[in-house]
Amino acid sequence: MHPTTRRPIKRARRALLLLTVTTIIATLAASSAAAVSVRRAWKAQLGGNGANGTAVLTGYWTGNGALNLKLVGLQPSTTYPVIAYHGSCTKPTLITRLPGAVTDANGSVTKISAVSTRIMNSIWSYGRTRAFSIKIGTGALARCGVFNHAVATRITIPGLKIDLPVIRQRTSYPPCGVAMYIQELSQPREAGVSLIYAHARKGMFLPLLERSRINNGASLIGATVRVWTSNNLVSTYRITRVRRHVISLAGVFDIGPEQLWIQTSEGPRGTVAKLIVVAKRVGYAAASQEAAHPEAYPTVCR
Fold this sequence. Notes:
The protein has five helices and 16 strands. Strand 4 and strand 5 form a beta hairpin.
C-alpha cells in the first residue's frame, strides 16, 4: 500500500486495504434508520430495449421502499404477479414477491406501490452485492428486466493531480492503477456513506497521505473532489474533515446524510491504521460518456 512496502507474508497478502469488510457486513443487520431519504434506486427496462416500459425500485433510509411501474403493450385488464429474482427469466429463482400490477383497458400500467421493510430487507440482502431482476407475469405473458443502479466510475482531486478510474474490487487484494468502491456501502448521490479507496502509491492516493502528515492535513480542507458515475453524472465535493489513524469503521451504516469517504493506507501492507478524508457534495452535473467511463487497467501491485 505504501511506497516502502516489502514482500508480504502469506497472511498479509490476503489482507484488504479497507478496514475489515467482514466487520462492515456484520454490522449491516444492526444499522438503524436515521432519515427519510433515498438509499438506492434500481432501474430496469422491461421487454426488448424497454419495449414494455420501465420499473424503478426505490429503497429509503427508513427501511421501506416504493415500486414505480410504467408499462405498455401488455394484456388489457389483466392482473400480473411481480417478483424480484435472480437467474434466467424462464427459470427464475425467487428473491421476494413485489406488489402486483393490474393493466387498464389499453394494457398499460402507471402505478407507484409501497414496498414494506420486510420485502426491502430481502432485496438488500441479495441486491447489495449481486445482480438481480424483475419479472412481471408468468409464462408467455412474462416480461423481464435487469435492475441496475449507478456506481462510481472515476475520481479526481485536481489540486493533488489525482485522476483514477474507479472499479469494484474483484480480487482478494486491491490492485494498483485504480481506485475501488465498497459495494456494501452507498454510491454517490445516495443517502449514507460512499467509500472510495486506493493504495498510497505514486499515481494513486499517495498525495493524500503526504498532505495529511503536514499539520494534520489542514491544507486538504476545502479541496475539490469530483466523482463520475455510470449514469453519466459528475458530482462535486468539498473536503470537510481529515481523519488520521482510523482503525475501525464501526457505525458507518448508521450515518444517514450523504457523505463521501476517501481512504488510503498510512503504512506498509498489513498496516491497520488508515487515512480517511471526508467530503460533502456541493453539486452535480451531466457528464459525457467518455469522461464518465475511463478505461481501467488494474495491475497486480509489486
